[in-house]
Amino acid sequence: MEQEFLSELFASRLRAAVLGFVVPRPHRGYSLTELSRNLDLPISSLQHECYKLERIGILISHREGSSRRYSVNPDFPLRRELTALIVGALGQKASLQATLEHVQTLESAFIAAALPLDDELIVESTATIPLVLVGDIPLEEIDAAQSRVADMLGLPTGRIEAVYYLPEDWQSRVAQRAPYAVWLLEGPRTHLLGEPVAG
Predict the structure, then answer these.
(1) How far is CA 199 from CA 165, 175, 176, 194, 196, in A?
(2) CATH classification of 2-81 is 1.10.10.10, yes or no?
(3) What letter would DSSP give residue 164?
(4) To bridge 109 with a disulfide, which of 26, 92, 155, 193 should be the other Cys (CB 3.0-4.6 Å)?
(5) 79-95 confidence digits (pLDDT tens)
(6) pTM as predicted
């Protein structure tokens, strides 16, 4: 059974492209048309790959109108390991950018750490890593973004601290040189989306 799973998983470049696109975006579902547009691959080939990935349990699908939408199966037993493999291949920054790209009204985001995180920080440290989100973002989106970022980094959710600001509040704190804002901006950080300070 394991051999069959491995041969199915690693059998094609097309499958790797689908996994590399879908896994960092576990909160999204994609139709074959959307996958085709994003990956620049033919729908007929993608249909075959998505069917196989669904058959082995990595993807799930549901019908929405006239199309079928594919997303990562949250109950797939090896989801964490597969995510770590994909993040290792794509890089932590690219994976985090992908997982945040569809957060509604998010204007900018950065993580107060230099990526890639070294193994010592991941394994041995118990300190939290601030994820700064600037925008008019619903609370459930903040919680979901925090969880996805932790997942992409292979950390428990509690190790990521979501630090949320409305845009005008953030700019005001930066302009006043509020100590925590200064610490966030002057320490090691990795920009994920937008600019942390308005030009």
Answers:
(1) 18, 12, 16, 11, 9
(2) yes
(3) E
(4) 193
(5) 999 999 999 889 999 99
(6) 0.86
